[in-house]
UniProtKB/TrEMBL annotation:
Molecular function terms from GO: DNA binding
InterPro entries tied to this protein: Cro/C1-type_HTH, Lambda_DNA-bd_dom_sf
Name of the protein this chain belongs to: HTH cro/C1-type domain-containing protein
Residue ranges annotated for the HTH cro/C1-type domain, each copy included: 20-74
Natural source organism: Brevundimonas viscosa
PROSITE patterns: HTH_CROC1
Top-level taxon in the UniProt lineage: Bacteria
Length: 162
């Protein structure tokens, strides 16, 4: 097992590595993020290095500075995936999930006590399988469209306007 595998990292270190992955994907420097977070560069570097305990204020400031999902950063350690935050930075997967969950909780209130875990497993599993299938279908449709469109332009010189 590698020294930096998620199982061996502290939560703060996992969050810091997830933050670094998002920052790099955003092509931002540590100084740019530190400035946007209103932090000294060294303090930001400690955050990204995972020094100390996880700091929720810094996580939310980082998310605002990089336009990413703070909840994905916080869940990276639990999922064992420091890449989760980078992969969901644009879709805001966890933020959307938590908003929907909050609406569900408000609607259900005390009826949540009677929810069957098997029904929850089935509902979430089915939903994620449908999302995966839809994603694959969209990728195939895009690849097919591009393949057909490329043939119309391949090897043709620009037309002479005269």
């Amino acid at each position: 097992m590698a020294a930096d595998s998620p199982e061996k990292l502290s939560d703060a270190r996992s969050i810091g590595q997830a933050a670094r992955a998002v920052r790099r994907a955003r092509r931002m420097t540590a100084q740019q993020v530190a400035t946007a977070m209103h932090l000294p560069l060294r303090t930001y570097e400690y955050f990204e290095a995972g020094s100390g305990r996880p700091n929720l204020d810094y996580v939310h400031r980082f998310a605002a500075a990089t336009d990413c999902d703070p909840w994905a950063l916080l869940l990276a350690p639990a999922l064992g995936s420091i890449e989760f935050a980078r992969r969901t930075a644009d879709s805001k997967l966890m933020l959307i999930f938590l908003i929907a969950l909050g609406e569900f909780e408000q609607s259900m209130q005390e009826r949540m006590l009677a929810l069957d875990p098997r029904a929850l497993i089935e509902a979430f599993t089915d939903t994620f399988r449908r999302l995966e299938a839809d994603s694959r279908l969209r990728e195939q449709e895009a690849a097919s469209w591009l393949s057909g469109a490329r043939g119309r332009f391949a090897g043709r010189p620009p037309e002479d306007p005269s």
